[in-house]
Design brief:
Length: 214
């Protein structure tokens, strides 16, 4: 018969051995977790899921507005997405009066003036962005959208503050993509935020619309 004085030691020993399976299970789970982290790192981390689907490179069409000395400007920026979800190889497209002088802009509130469709001063500086709405697409859709944008750039003759303005130009691109757009006479920031709200959760309309057009 065991001495009662040995019971505390036996209890401690029994508890120690009973914990070994739990410790082994914990160690195994930690090892699996670390292996998963290493795999994520090799793939570019969790952000990689935002820039690729089944290994496919993704691209973005980003509708933007920016601040200006006037009421602002609406334009499009597009390009490839990197592993961090950042837009790289960025290209700007949008309608605005030609030249750097404010005179064409002022005259364009009365009669149409000559336009340009590339970047205007401030478009490439993120600190001036007042609103943005991004649509992510795969390469086939991206190429078709870019082709439409370039064709539109080649055929945009004039700018007018009411009848042919920057927001209306951007709205045409959005509609080609199967998106809805607000009235082009609202302020640029309101236009982009409105566009985002109108199309919330329906970005895949882009692929569906383009596929139907083939």
């Amino acid at each position: 018969m065991a001495d009662i004085r040995d019971l505390p030691g036996r209890v401690r020993t029994t508890r120690t051995w009973s914990r070994l399976p739990l410790l082994a299970l914990t160690a195994g789970l930690l090892a699996i977790g670390l292996a998963g982290q290493r795999a994520d790192a090799a793939r570019g981390g969790p952000e990689a899921a935002q820039t690729s689907i089944r290994g496919k490179q993704l691209y973005a069409i980003e509708f933007r507005s920016r601040y200006a000395l006037s009421y602002g400007h609406t334009f499009i920026m597009y390009g490839r997405l990197n592993a961090k979800g950042q837009l790289v190889d960025r290209v700007v497209a949008g309608l605005h009066p030609a030249g750097d002088s404010p005179q064409p802009w002022m005259i364009g509130h009365i009669v149409p003036v000559k336009s340009e469709t590339g970047p205007s001063d401030g478009d490439l500086e993120d600190k001036y962005v007042s609103a943005r709405y991004r649509v992510t697409v795969e390469e086939p859709e991206f190429r078709r959208i870019v082709a439409y944008i370039k064709n539109k750039q080649a055929n945009s003759g004039t700018w007018h503050a009411i009848f042919n303005n920057c927001s209306g130009w951007v709205a045409d691109v959005g509609r080609y993509m199967g998106l809805s757009a607000p009235n082009s006479l609202v302020m640029p920031e309101e236009f982009i935020n409105g566009m985002k709200k109108m199309n919330e959760g329906n970005d895949r309309r882009t692929a569906q619309s383009l596929a139907a057009a083939q």
